[in-house]
Structures are given as C-alpha cells and as structure tokens.
C-alpha cells in the first residue's frame, strides 16, 4: 500500500513537472537551425548571420547544425520528422522548390510537412571561371564553351544545388550540353576551380564575392536585372549578351508541420529583427545580397513563393530530363 502511494506521488510529481515545463514561455532552451548543406557554403553563411542575431532577440542560443547530402533532402527529411515544438528550425534555399521535381522519391512533402516562417534574402548568381580561362568576357565565354563543349568542364555543388540549377538553365539557354562535374558541396567545387581542375561555374555571390574581389577567379556576369552594388564592374547577363537570363537563389526559414502558431509568431518576429540588424545588413551587402522587405519575411509570403517556385521549376526540370534517385 505504501509503495503504491509513493508511486502515485512520484507519478503526480512527474506530471506536475511536465505541465510546468510545458507552461514555460518559449524559448527556454537552445534552438537548432538545420542547414541541409556543408559548413562554409553560401546557405550556411546566411544561416549563421541570421542565427547570431536571433540568439540576441530570442534570448536563447540558436545553433546551426549542418546536415548535408542528397541536394538538401536529407536535412529536410530530418526536420520534417522533428518534434513540432519550435526547437528545430530549417533554413533552406531554392532547393526546397526544386526537390519535388528532381527526386523521384522523397520521404517528405515540401509544402505539407513544414510551417513556413518567412523569406530571408534573394542571392544573385555569378558566372566565374578559373583564373587562366581563355575567354575575356561573357560573350567570349559563351562562344568558347559552345566551340569546346566536349572539353570544357562545368562544376556544381551537386544535384539540386543552386549551381546545378544555374548550369542547367545556362545549357538550355545556349542550347549546348556540357560536361558537368558534381561535388559534395560548394566548398570542394570552389577549391577545384581555384586549383584549375575544372573550368567554370555559376554560384551565389555569398560564395564568390570574396574570390572575385581577391582576383582569384575570372568573373563574367551576374544573373540579375541590375548590377550588384558590391560588384559594380560586372555586367548583368542581359548586358553581356544573354537577355532574359535571370536566376536568384532565395532562402527561407521553416519549422516542422504542427509547430504552434504562437511559437511561429515569436520566431517570425525574431527573423524580422534579424533582417533589420545593421550587422546582418552590412554582411549581406558585403556578400552581394540584401535582406528581403518586411512584407516578404512572413509565413504567408514564403508559402505563396514556395508554391509558385515549385510550379515554375517543375516543367523546366522535366524538360531537361534531370532526375536523382
């Protein structure tokens, strides 16, 4: 009888503790922000800047955990299966909208298994080549790769990466198939480009700006309507002879499906603060990008944008016939 009573008391104590813990205001412990790519890449850079600012406003540490592989789908699948309590967040780029078309089988639904929080930034892309590449400007680059399509090598960071998507569109635009060399991330691809093992690539300004300014690579064009302020001497693709070729790599923040609305609202508010943070804005500018406007850093805006991007990329990918297992 005594043991039964003690067990009952212990059970009530645990229950009371659980209720008390549940009643604690969010957040009350460390938050993990999953990035589905290797450390040091452009998406990782964006995540760490945002996480640092959110740590201050949320008054809890926001750590970045890199869960790379399979074009970002391994990290996405992990988040989709995580507890919807606000302690697991997910920062991904345009790949969230292309994975449904690129991969025949996904263990998650890109729309239904996530709670959108807000857009973060639109990052321009740049066409760059090894330092001793023969072409002097973008027109010469296009002419050279078309004339030497069996010898020229195009590097990318793997299926579904921004550099893969840009290269796929480029080859479609110039009607030329090139030899592509996929890597397990942007870092290794850039290292081999710097070492001259591959010829050229198209990648985000967050990864290329320092290499361009340092004179380590040849820069040919940016993939935006207007020139990038941090790279004013580099023409747009339209200026350089490829009208209408525009690619921007957007980044968004998500939580697992079912995360309570009050938690989403707190994280959204912290994101809004981060995108107005002078340090974040300056670092983004240094990297050739800028935060999105406040009206785009919302769950509604990200949800609508994700759906429109899935609709945009699906026919392009299917036409190219590019799939991953």
Automatic annotation (TrEMBL):
Classification of source organism: Bacteria, Pseudomonadati, Pseudomonadota, Betaproteobacteria, Burkholderiales
SUPFAM superfamilies in the record: Periplasmic binding protein-like II
Signal peptide boundaries: 1-22
InterPro entries xref list: BUG, Bug_dom1
UniProt entry keywords in alphabetical sequence: Receptor, Signal
Organism domain of life: Bacteria
Record family assignment: Belongs to the UPF0065 (bug) family.
Organism whose genome encodes this protein: Herminiimonas fonticola
A Pfam short name: TctC
Name of protein: Tripartite-type tricarboxylate transporter receptor subunit TctC
């Amino acid at each position: 009888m005594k043991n039964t009573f003690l067990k009952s008391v212990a059970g009530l104590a645990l229950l009371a503790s659980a209720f008390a813990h549940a009643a604690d205001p969010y957040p009350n412990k460390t938050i993990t922000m999953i990035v589905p790519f290797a450390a040091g890449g452009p998406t990782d850079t964006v995540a760490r800047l945002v996480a640092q600012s959110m740590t201050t406003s949320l008054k809890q540490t926001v750590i970045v955990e890199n869960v790379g592989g399979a074009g970002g789908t391994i990290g996405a699948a992990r988040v989709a299966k995580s507890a919807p309590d606000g302690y697991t967040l997910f920062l991904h780029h345009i790949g969230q909208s292309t994975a449904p078309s690129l991969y025949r089988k996904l263990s998650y639904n890109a729309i239904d298994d996530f709670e959108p929080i807000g857009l973060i930034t639109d990052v321009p892309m740049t066409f760059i080549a090894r330092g001793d590449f023969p072409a002097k400007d973008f027109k010469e680059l296009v002419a050279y790769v078309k004339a030497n399509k069996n010898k020229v090598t195009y590097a990318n960071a793997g299926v579904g990466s921004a550099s893969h998507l840009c290269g796929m569109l480029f080859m479609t635009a110039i009607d030329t198939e090139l030899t592509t060399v996929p890597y397990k991330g942007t870092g290794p691809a850039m290292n081999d480009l710097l070492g001259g093992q591959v010829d050229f690539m198209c990648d985000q300004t967050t990864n290329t700006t320092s290499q361009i300014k340092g004179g380590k690579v040849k820069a040919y064009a940016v993939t935006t309507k207007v020139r990038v302020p941090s790279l004013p001497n580099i023409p747009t693709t339209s200026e350089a002879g490829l009208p209408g070729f525009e690619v921007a790599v957007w980044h968004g923040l998500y939580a697992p499906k079912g995360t309570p609305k009050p938690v989403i609202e707190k994280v959204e508010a912290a994101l809004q603060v981060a995108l107005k943070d002078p340090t974040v804005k300056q670092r983004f500018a240094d990297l050739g990008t800028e935060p999105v406007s406040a009206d785009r850093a919302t769950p509604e805006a990200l949800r609508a944008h994700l759906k429109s991007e899935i609709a945009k990329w699906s026919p392009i990918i299917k036409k190219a016939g590019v799939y991953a297992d």
